[in-house]
């Protein structure tokens, strides 16, 4: 009850006038709850129009894994007002491009077209928020498509199967352990009812974020959004977005995936890691540095220098961290051993380097280089209007706000070497880690 | 729709007369769907009265782990017709005992009393199928009790925590990976609404099995059951019992649990294993032999003889398999190393023995001894009226029928040595295994 009231109050405040505007980014909320973010960039007469839903694979009900992604495919079918495929055809006829993507935390649809076609895009996108018409034929046809997609991208790729099994081991309770594409045995049974249940529950203006970026004015976007998205009724009983959470991870896990198709074995390790939280982005910012310092730019990173150049144990060593996520995420280390180096020795070298790093701390010169690089990356990113739109959409569907996105560059620049070491000490807890080996069928025993 | 119709037809057939009777076991189905199994044993004027629900921890909704067990506790609170604790008090005053238990597949309530008190037991048990009255005080009080139960049985026992983390690693998708007691962070939030939702969904005469064993006649039991349980209305929309199933397990997993409280390290390995299926119990029967042959009776089993007596590597080596389970279960091997033997060496010895067993096959004399022992166990089990009742209740809540239970001793006796080897070859697939080490804080690295 409290939740619904708060929603109504928030809508009342946001109606019709910019709620936030910093530099060239503005945001509004329509009366029906649709959030709108406008990123101005007038260098070319082009606009990116994106609709993001706060609904991804991790919001699926148990047993219907893959339904979020399946529905993404189905949204290109017939609606009450348009024929199947008509949106994509109109976009192409207007010289634009369109696509869609599904992650654990969101599903998003976008078009890139000439700026004067924005109204048409909104008309067609708004239509499929509510008006999808699904036949059993659509289900049968498109289910074959996603099964084939799984066959090609996962089942025929030992590395993808390996990462899927790693992921399942990394999460004891949370749905991030289930693949976005879905488990095959569940995908085979996905039905029209399953698709409509997900659609009716999550596809609503008050569960979506509209991001428009490019050669547009905020007022024009607001007027168009009111015209096309405004008439959509909100879903009144939209519940909180609650997922099951992890219990304490108490035991170091190891996993060996053997497949005759593997030609290049490697070691992958993931640690449970915090994500960016709204109003509290400091630890995540420190982890971005940590990934860069340990495993960014091969030649100069801690792991790259030690394992690839000094010891020549690895042909590649890297680290990865995705800070934008609704719930706890993973920090990843990878070592691809040089020919004739055993995985065991490659892993031991990795462990040794991490230990030494925790003792020795960060080289001040490297830290300054990374800090400068991060700032430069941010400046360059401003040039890519699509990337800027994507940044707002992914953040706002992952529990962050426009303010968080705007505070992020400063949060990154505020990180100190000691912050990074503190985050590293908290992160490298073997009990929260999974170590995986990808090997050929007759490969090294763990 | 088909499901409901089939149910109605079955009820029509079963009303009022024994549907099945073999030896001293009879079974009926009341009009409201309650199944009744009667096991006659007139050696003592005692009766065991058990009510089993087809609802266990694996039937819980995501995020409310522990609710099945929590509800079991709450069933001893007030009902419309009796005070809190009254059932247990009446049982005790009549010189009997009572209790309840929850597993992944069932929740069961039982009393053992003088045979002439059966009607009274039924009156009180039938009352709490539908008439539970829960206050917020009950919730708060009893939630503290289950949290304390978890603290004592799990959190303060490194071996229990270890097995919990093993279990989470053993199942990639299926709820058997979630502990029956619940994850602490979810238990802390279990509410009255959660308990009532589980109660209203699963506690129904057509989702229960009444097992009465002891000094009773089937006709008397049927009459009493009709009197006391007959008036309970069935739940009309009781859905099928569907749980998410496992994807293919493709990667061998290893896990190391370190805890300063560990005084005796050991190696545990679990393999994904089939369970008894209705009408198809042969493979499970073979696995019962396999567990006995490999790790039964210490002195004469394959692992016991090799690891404890010949090589003196272990102080204990065993194997375990629980055949009764609704979905795929686990086959377990354990080696507790002798002092000064490293876990690595203990595990290597285990692997060597399994390999040798797969090559050498079963010693015919040992096979005959085990076969005889299994038959003897079955004969002795007939003496324990409580165990006989338990056997029917657990089987009927795990997808088996009265006929399956009665066919089981013959299925066991029909097993050949070649059946066992075939089951062993299918079972020992490292991709479907988790190997765990329990070690002290500064224990051996994996």
UniProtKB/TrEMBL annotation, chains A, B:
GO terms for molecular function: metal ion binding; metallopeptidase activity. Residues 189-373 form the Peptidase M16 C-terminal domain. Residues 1-21 form the signal peptide. GO terms for biological process: proteolysis. Residues 36-181 form the Peptidase M16 N-terminal domain. Keywords: Hydrolase, Metalloprotease, Protease, Signal, Zinc. InterPro entries: Metalloenz_LuxS/M16, Pept_M16_N, Peptidase_M16, Peptidase_M16_C. Belongs to the peptidase M16 family. This is Insulinase family protein.
